[in-house]
Design goal:
about 400 residues; 3-stranded antiparallel β-sheet
């Protein structure tokens, strides 16, 4: 179904290989969507060379621009590129199910860590995200912002994010980065970029876009006509996933309005699940599994968790499949390459802003925290230590520091 050509070679993988790789990532990717993009870059750009830096940044820019969970969309695209639709499903499954299972266990009362050691362990895991995001910003800035024009675009994008509280700021920064790239970067030589062929037929793309809009408009009507609590729950999850721009955390107020306001669960239960979602690896959208488990209307429990996961991830996958058929041909055009240079630089700025807020501001509180994050960064950049080892180190160091 798919093929990627790097340096003249055709590289494909089996769905099983993709599943195992993303399962490892799903068990170790702490820190939210921006950190996940850093983990993916280390795994697929640096270590495995499945995709080159520029093509990866293009893909990240596309997924940041679309509604839905950007890191899950990037992973879905890489699985699709390597092993077709089964590979895409394997990538989504491996990356999503570990955190979903942990949150379902938490909903049943079996997933909460207590005491100073448990709290330190969780805090150490969060410090891993600081090192991972810093590594991603460092590496991507060197490759994607090598001149003053693109460095300036990155800084401007970061300032837009840092000075604005609007969720639309991330999209605005990327759009303005593209416009600045079209204006400032047209005279530059074409950037070296491996050919990435994601064979989604245009008819498939147009069909999935049609399904996306039909469900968005039709589910509220079906909900009103049927009176089914199952349809109501699916509509609440789908609408929340379809209207999210700017990362996983933006979905939380939408979910709170959809589930707490009608009395489907208490605010305390919602906030407890939100806290647990911060502490587990994988995409924040798996918070839907917790909500589906504890929500009062039927179906709940495991059936509700499955309904929540499908409902919240489906719109982002549909709109991504709608965009992918046009992505590779778009990025080959001269003007489009200039635009994408600006977009890629803006993505670096967005990552840099996220490194400060929320990754740094919510995690690094003391000199000890900074020391753990700094060691993790040096292990990743200078010693090229596998992220899993850095995760283990940070977790152990967090637990030890909690006892000192």
């Amino acid at each position: 179904m798919t093929a990627e050509k790097i340096e003249g070679n055709t590289a494909t993988s089996s769905p099983t290989e993709v599943l195992l790789i993303f399962l490892k990532l799903g068990l170790t990717c702490f820190g939210g969507p921006i950190a996940h993009i850093g983990y993916f870059r280390d795994e697929f750009v640096v270590r495995r060379k499945w995709i080159d830096e520029h093509a990866y940044a293009d893909l990240v820019g596309l997924c940041q621009f679309l509604p839905g969970p950007a890191s899950s969309q990037v992973g879905f695209s890489i699985g699709l590129m390597r092993a077709g639709y089964l590979g895409a499903l394997a990538a989504w499954t491996g990356f999503t199910l570990p955190s979903a299972a942990l949150l379902v266990l938490f909903a049943y009362g079996a997933g909460e860590l207590s005491g100073p050691i448990g709290a330190g362990l969780l805090h150490g895991l969060k410090l891993t995200a600081v090192a991972i995001v810093a590594q991603a910003v460092w590496g991507m800035a060197r490759n994607l912002c090598p001149d003053r024009e693109r460095a300036s675009i990155a800084v401007a994008a970061a300032l837009i994010i840092l000075f604005s509280t609007a969720s639309i700021a991330q999209i605005g920064a990327i759009v303005l980065g593209g416009l600045a790239g079209w204006w400032l970067c047209r005279s530059q030589a074409p950037a070296p970029s491996g050919h990435v062929e994601i064979l989604v037929a245009r008819i498939v793309g147009l069909t999935t876009l049609g399904i996306f809009f039909v469900l968005l408009a039709g589910l509220p009507v079906l909900r009103s006509l049927s009176g089914s609590s199952g349809v109501a729950l699916f509509d609440a999850f789908y609408r929340s996933g379809a209207l999210v721009f700017g990362g996983g955390h933006v979905v939380l107020p939408l979910l709170r309005e959809a589930f707490v306001a009608p009395g489907w669960l208490s605010d305390d239960a919602f906030l407890a699940g939100y806290g647990a979602a911060q502490a587990v690896p994988g995409p924040l959208f798996t918070f839907a599994a917790y909500l589906g488990t504890v929500v009062s209307p039927e179906p709940h429990g495991l059936a509700g968790a499955a309904l929540g996961l499908v409902g919240i991830f489906l719109p982002g996958i549909l709109v991504l499949l709608g965009a992918l058929p046009f992505w590779d041909s778009f990025r080959k055009r001269t003007d489009a390459q200039a635009v994408m240079r600006g977009v890629n630089a803006a993505v670096v700025g967005v990552l840099g802003a996220a490194l400060y807020d929320p990754v740094w501001t919510t995690t690094v509180h003391t000199g000890k925290d900074f020391g753990i994050a700094l060691v993790g960064f040096v292990l990743l950049v200078a010693w090229r230590t596998p992220p899993l080892v850095v995760v283990a180190f940070s977790a152990a160091a967090g637990a030890v520091m909690a006892l000192i």
